[in-house]
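ERR on first pass: missing label on line 2. Operator R.T. fixed the label and resubmitted. Corrected input:
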Amino acid sequence: MRRRIALACALALVPIALLAQGLRTDPRAVPSPLVGAPAPDFALPRFDGGDLRLSNLRGRVLVVNFWASWCGPCREEAAGLEAVWRRYREAGVVLVGVNIQDREAPARAFLGATRPSYPNVVDRNGAASISYGIYGVPETFVIDRDGRIRLRHVGAVGIEALARQIEPLLGERS
Amino acid sequence: MRMAELLVAESESSERCQHDAGRAQHEKDGESPVTATAGSLALWVALAVAVYGFVAAALGARRNPGWSASARGAVLVQFALVTAAAAVLEWALLASDFSLRYVAQNSSRATPGLYKAGALWGALEGSLLLWVWLLAACSALVVVLYTRRHAELMPSVVAVLLAVSAFFLVVLCFISSPFERLAPAPADGRGLNPLLENPGMAFHPPALYLGYVAFTVPFAFAMAALVTRRLGAEWIATTRRWTIIAWWALTAGILLGAWWAYRVLGWGGYWAWDPVENASLLPWLTGTAFLHSVMIQERRDMLKLWNLSLVILTFALTLLGTFLTRSGIIASVHAFAGSPAIGTAFLAFIALVLLVSFSLVAARGDALAAPAELESLVSRESAFVLNNVVLLAATFSVLFGTLYPMVSEALRGVKASVGAPYFNFVNFPILVAVLLLMGVGPLIAWRRASLDHLRRNFLAPALAAAGLRQGHVLTVAALAVFVAGTVGHDLWRGVRARRTADGSPARALLSLLARNHRRYGGFLVHLGVVIIFVGVAGSSGYGRQVEQTVGVGESLSIGRYRVEFDGLRQVPNGTHVAVVAGFNVRNSDAPLGRLEPAKLFYPQQQQPIAHVAIRSSWREDLYLILTEFAPDGSAATVKAMVNPLLMWLWIGAGVITLGTAWAVLPDRRPRRA
Amino acid sequence: MRAWLALLAVLASVAGARAATPTAAEVEAVARQLRCVVCQNLSVADSPSEMARQMRDVVRERLAAGETPEAVKAYFVERYGEWVLLMPPARGFPLLAFVLPLGALVGGLTAALVVLRRWSRRSADPGASAEVDEEDLAAVRDEVRRRGAV
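pass 2 clean. output:
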């Protein structure tokens, strides 16, 4: 009888241990299956006219940032992204902003306020953002010269963190 | 789901998807600091009293009436103090005292009075205070009701109740206090989330919490029985009515939540197998099993160990629910903005409860082992045992599904999840088994039944059910008819037997029902459950859905209805602006009235809230959601759904309530054993 | 005759090919199994959010392009990971999610029946039925009378 009860106790503690483990993880942090995979291509209209096709930029290190005008952290990271662009532009890094889940007027207002000098495109029907597995904003992807996704960052990204990811890729030859 | 997006946004504000976290516009000197101090003080003293009472009760358990009396006094004093603390917070809410952070975050000057009052349980700290208050009230009631007749058990019961409330008070005092101050106090509060401004909000949390808290009482009595070695049916018989009422409150809480989801959250459904919904279902399942298996112990003195384990498990599961909602461990629309600190505290307490309870059970192992005997394999005892097995299988599958994301991540590092399709699939066979047992169980005699007996009792209802065609959903309907049939058949036979004594059938029926409240109350509850199952089957199996954009004057067809759009209008409304779409509904014969789904735009909310429009009838609900509209009012996109038999869920809830009320009434004369 | 067979063959092949536009029900059937990624616990079919609408559009496009529902789901899993499915795939580790609960039900019922049989065998008079035979009753009455019991 006692052994059986001890067994029941031990069994009861298994879910508790599991829950304790669960306490240490963030339920909303989802690892991306896309890291290491080829970056999905897209051809989207630019805010300043014309189209931008991602595959045309093959051979360069790319940073693709998904944003929306109603998103606070997007605004916070805008200055940092511009700084990164300015620092690595000469080295051949291309920064592309993709506006998703938004309307034209507020998006343009956002661009007017943050004044990025890198190209920004708009994903009207969501196909591009879905192909990147986007589930919130902001999200930033770093793509190497071979067109493979090397990093996916969820949430506002800081200058130094991004720079640390870009630098090693600059040295790689495609 | 809109609310989900809002809540994701709000709670994740530091990293992404942020919107304004509040409007502390002007700054003013704090309101009365007395409020916060008084409230905190009340809680601190209550904690001290609870700890003192626990010690006193432990001493009193050694047959010391002086300490026992003191412990009982502590329970009453604790109740007074916790009531005072709750009153202070409620007053602060009603008076819009924004110097308290809790008031500033959950209320505003514009919030209507009813919802200001309800904001007491609108967020984490307040909900814990509600829990403690309910627990203190139940403890006081237990002391008042049972001291005289159960002097032996009381000290231990009091000790357990005080220990549990002491834990909650510790959390309230040290980890999340509702009386934290904001200095300087803002001029206006953030206001309650608009989705919570609904009558359901006034009833769903209190009913649900009452259900959770009330299960602490049978648990306390079980612990007392173990401590005092009075392991017979005393602890069960005493708590019988508590258990029934606790079960009813939990059922009502769950169904009120479903009603609220259906009416307010507005996606057309009423149950999403959300982890927190599941957390309320788990103790309900084991509580239902417990309700049934205690009857075996009362009559046959069997299954003592089983019943003790079941009540411990039920209590542990009620704590699990609070843990899941407040620890931040799962992402859910119900999740309060908790923290790992609270999560750790609750998890530690659950572990403590399990260890202490099962150690006690182990210590009394010799007294609990009794050879079990049944006269016949086919008997009510067997049906109840099978009932327990099936309900526990359901508990396990819901628990596993809820914890599956954690299991997957822990064992293979892959984030996975399960949702409604999975739970529906896995639980369907269990549902069928439950219905079958509900039909068969009440009519099998205690002790034994023969196949002949079965044949005589079940043939007629089974034939009625067989008349319906087979099919996924129709299986449920067939079994429902079976259960209704067995209940009706039994009542008919009973009335027929009594008619000779009582004359008219109506009087016969009444006197039959009055002779055995528990049995017939139980039948009525079963009937209510069956009605709910039929409603669930109808709305999940045969629902229809159409989404269409219509211009003014155009109509949309769904089922028997034609819904014609006749324009949009804008209605400013104090705290929000509503865009209301008018629809004229008609079926093939006649106009049926108007439905006006709307979108409500609140200045602080990033997304509008949808107000759905529902037209209910016995047969089906017509449900309209306004998804989009043209800014010039010329067109609207509407999602129309027809949900068959959905009203049966609420009707079933009413029947269950009636059945429960009947079941707890005392019998007019002594029941036959 | 040959013309009829030829016509039948053509008709059969046309019927076998996928319809160009998927019905709303077909889209919903797939959408119901995908999790809305910005909501908590709602399927793509149920969610009113813009993201869900865009996901439904993607589902519709892919079905229209001739992909099977499995392929459409696989596309989303490729982008989002396994958690985007509301029903775990029935192979590998997720199989546990089906086997364990259903196994618990079947195992529990079996164990219960075994235990119940054991309990009922232990009873003093396992063979007695609820009914009493008239003949036996008369025999007992005679016996009682014969022995002069009160």
